[in-house]
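Predict structure. Input: SIMPL domain-containing protein, 233 residues.
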Amino acid sequence: MKKIVVTFILTFVLTSVMGQSKNFLDIPYLETSARVDTLVTPDKIYLNITIKEKDSKGKKSVEEQENKMAQSLKALGIDLDKQLVIKDLSSNFKKYFLRQKDILKSKQYSLELYDGQTAGKVMVALERLNIANAYLEKTEYSKMDELELELKSRAVKKAKKKAEALTAPLGQSVGAAIHILDTSTPYYPRYNQAPRMQMKTMEMDMAEAEPLDIGFEKIKVETSVNIKFALSE
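Output follows.
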């Protein structure tokens, strides 16, 4: 008896699915696709900064260099509590035991900035402190979610306009959308393609160095949709 009931249920489900597929195929429809893109200027810029004892003359301690860096960043109006985080703290204890050399510590930081001009000022300040190991880590756009939704809406409108342009000469009109597929590629933060490349100012007298208004590459954001519209006479 159970086998009969299960067989009946499966038959009913398959019949329903096939019926829905048939009904969908029986509806006259037009399939169109549209893509919309734009360029935005990143408003979140992350610099990776590493302080090493061996990088400074006289082997100044990491803490001493850190304090001087903090003072310079504060002078530029940077909120250290919100914008500067420690990523890694290490020391070469292993090399010390193997080679009996001095223990050298290092600290790695991530600094969040919001515009190219401030980034340029930071790079000059780091150069003046003889902290040369700094590079662009990644860039982001803070309102990406809102922008993507806006682009999706524009893509849907564009797809409908294409459908209307195709059906107008035939004397037909575009009805409701019976199937919408978002074919967009998810956005991911843009990481530096050459992470070990150091960002340095040109060789010059640091007393005459001017902060650079660094122009970061704009982020391309695009979205695409595929829509089936029902057609009516």
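Residues 161 and 174 are 9 Å apart (CA to CA).
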